[in-house]
C-alpha cells in the first residue's frame, strides 16, 4: 500500500461526500451498467493498477458502471480492477461509525500514514466482493485519510472513521494489487478461501480460466 507522511488538512479541505448521497448514487447507477465481479485468482487483482491520467467521458462512464456494479453486488466499495479495469479508481457508498452515509469516487488514491496517537486498531470482520461469502477478522486503524483526485482530476482528500475508514483502506489496497486475505495469517487465509469455495456468490462473477 502506498503511504506518505503529511500533516492532516483542516476540516474544510476534506470533500463533502455526505450531502445528497441518495440522489448522487442513483444518478451514477442509473447511467451505468452492472458488470461481473472478478474474484481471487484473477490476474488483474494481484498487480498494481495504472494511474488515471485522462479525466474525461470514458472515466465518467466507468465510474457510472462501477456504481451500478457495486449496487448489484450489494457492496459498500468497489475498485476498478474488481470489474476488470486496470485503473486506479474506486467508488464507495459506505456509512461511518456514526451511521453517516458517504458516497464518492477517488482516483489515484494514497493513504496518509497516521501518527501514533491516531493508530487505534479495530479488529472487526472484513469481507470482499472478490472473495465472495468469506469473512475474517482483520485489524486496521479505525481512522483513515486518503488523498487523490476526483473524476474531473481535481485534488481531493477523504477521511473516514470506523467501517468507512476500513473501506478506504480496503479499496486502496485493491488498486495496489492486494486483497484483504493477503494481510491474514496463512491459517486465516486458508480458512477464508475454504469459506469462499463452499459458498455461492449472490452476484455475477468472472470465471477464472
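-> sequence recovered:
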Amino acid at each position: 500500500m502506498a503511504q506518505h507522511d503529511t500533516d492532516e488538512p483542516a476540516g474544510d479541505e476534506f470533500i463533502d461526500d455526505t450531502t445528497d448521497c441518495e440522489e448522487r448514487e442513483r444518478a451514477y447507477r442509473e447511467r451505468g451498467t452492472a458488470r461481473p465481479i472478478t474474484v481471487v485468482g484473477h490476474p488483474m487483482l494481484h498487480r498494481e493498477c495504472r494511474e488515471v491520467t485522462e479525466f474525461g467521458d470514458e472515466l465518467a462512464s466507468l465510474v457510472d458502471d462501477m456504481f451500478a456494479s457495486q449496487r448489484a453486488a450489494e457492496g459498500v466499495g468497489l475498485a476498478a480492477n474488481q470489474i476488470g479495469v486496470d485503473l486506479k479508481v474506486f467508488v464507495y457508498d459506505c456509512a461511518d461509525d456514526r451511521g453517516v452515509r458517504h458516497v464518492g469516487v477517488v482516483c489515484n488514491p494514497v493513504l496518509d500514514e497516521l501518527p501514533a496517537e491516531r493508530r487505534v486498531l479495530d479488529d472487526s470482520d472484513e469481507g470482499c466482493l472478490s472473495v465472495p461469502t468469506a469473512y475474517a477478522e482483520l485489524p486496521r486503524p479505525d481512522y483513515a485519510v486518503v488523498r487523490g483526485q476526483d473524476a474531473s482530476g481535481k485534488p481531493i482528500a477523504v477521511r473516514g472513521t470506523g467501517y468507512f475508514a476500513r473501506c478506504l483502506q480496503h479499496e486502496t489496497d485493491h488498486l495496489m494489487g492486494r486483497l484483504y486475505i493477503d494481510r491474514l495469517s496463512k491459517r486465516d487465509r486458508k480458512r477464508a478461501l475454504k469459506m469462499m469455495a463452499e459458498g455461492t456468490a449472490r452476484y455475477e462473477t468472472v470465471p477464472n480460466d
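The radius of gyration is 16 Å.
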